[in-house]
Design brief:
It is built from 14 helices and 14 strands. With 382 residues, the chain is of the alpha/beta class. It comes from Pyramidobacter porci.
């Protein structure tokens, strides 16, 4: 019977979230001997989701083990309880690890029910970080506390081994034509950002011309959030040039080429909308440029700017930032520490020239998953 410590990773099926929690878990497994399993949390919808995750979950911080079990049963977690019964939880040191607001209540409830430790990655929208034994949160969240580890970017699974293996796979499918290559990682639309065909027509031709002048290959990919019209415009522009060695459109191909691109390319351009892509590029140690994109306007954007003004005036805490200003702080922190270079379409030629003048030695030693793994292990298995 296996009585080693047990880590239970709770998966809410959001790719960006699971990349973070798996990245930390994988680093932890390189540093310590324990068993790890992965459970999917229930997928609730509509009124049932609001009731369980937004309303009833507020009682969890003060819940008894019996109260936590009642919440799990009401929140569709009977299968989680049944699976826990099979792993001999009474005699093992347990750690429940999750990323994202959907999985967080299940993480806390299971830890309370089975007397384990709880660790959440990112700040849960309803519960915050205080109820958890450990919380790994980005600096721009503005959270502090004895149970909080502050990171600069998002933890991820990038490692030298992954970069090498994925680079080989990428080049077997798309053999290089030139000795050097650049990557272009294009995100997409969300509540804060928009990447329209107009942005493509402004930015991409300049990148294509710069790559041709530098005699490098381009490896380009999009996101599942990229507009169909935007992908069509990208495909049209890339079809007229031989400098593009790979164009992988996320709407047509489910593969994730990002680790391979980061492993092969000396320079990478990321759009500002994806914290995950930016963090992965910096972790890989390649020269990284973040290109600004369109922002949604209206009352919501105005309220974000008012909040930012109040934070700058020290009338509100940094943790009150939300939307674009919140993510801008992260990018600014990266830039201030020389991890990346900001490129704006408005000043595209000068910004691009400045970026291309940066030496190719990159920035090594940045790995938030490694930092988080050591911190968690010291608190779980001292």
């Amino acid at each position: 019977m296996d009585l080693r410590p047990l880590l239970i990773l709770l998966n809410e099926s959001t790719r960006g979230h699971i990349v973070q929690s798996r990245g930390i878990r994988d680093r932890m497994q390189k540093l310590a001997d324990f068993e790890a399993v992965e459970f999917d949390v229930p997928r609730l919808h509509g009124a049932a989701r609001i009731k369980a995750l937004k309303l009833l979950a507020r009682r969890l911080p003060k819940a008894t083990p019996q109260g936590a079990e009642r919440w799990l049963l009401r929140a569709g977690g009977k299968e989680l309880l049944d699976r826990m019964a099979l792993v001999n939880p009474e005699r093992r040191s347990l750690l429940f690890l999750s990323a994202g607001s959907t999985a967080a209540p299940y993480c806390l409830a299971l830890a309370k029910r089975f007397s384990g430790k709880s660790c959440v990655v990112m700040t849960p929208s309803v519960l915050g970080t205080k109820p958890f034994d450990m919380a790994v949160v980005p600096k721009h969240d503005g959270r502090r506390g004895d149970n909080v580890l502050v990171t600069l970017g998002a933890p991820n699974s990038i490692s030298p081994e992954l970069l090498e293996s994925q680079s080989r796979e990428l080049l077997s499918d798309y053999p290089p034509h030139q000795k050097d290559a650049w990557g272009v990682l294009i995100g997409g639309d969300d509540l804060n950002y928009s990447i329209a065909p107009l942005w493509v027509n402004k930015v991409l031709p300049t990148l294509l011309n710069a790559a041709a002048d530098a005699n490098v290959d381009l490896y380009i990919t999009t996101s599942r959030r990229t507009q169909a019209a935007t992908e069509m415009e990208i495909a049209k522009l890339c079809g007229d040039t031989s400098v593009v060695r790979m164009l992988l459109l996320a709407s047509q191909d489910s593969r994730n080429p990002v680790p391979g691109i980061l492993g092969h390319c000396s320079r990478v351009f990321c759009t500002e909308d994806s914290v995950s892509m930016i963090s992965e590029a910096v972790t890989a140690g390649v020269q990284t440029a973040v290109i600004t994109v369109g922002h949604h306007h209206g009352v919501k954007r105005l309220l974000q700017e008012v909040t930012e003004w109040l934070v700058d005036a020290r009338l509100l805490s940094t943790k009150r930032l939300w939307g674009v200003p919140r993510f801008n702080r992260m990018i600014e922190d990266f830039e201030n520490q020389n991890y990346l270079c900001l490129v704006t379409p408005r000043n595209l030629d000068d910004d691009l020239r400045h970026f291309l003048e940066r030496p190719l030695d990159g920035m090594k030693g940045f790995n938030e998953a490694e930092k988080a793994a050591r911190w968690i292990l010291n608190r779980w298995l001292p």
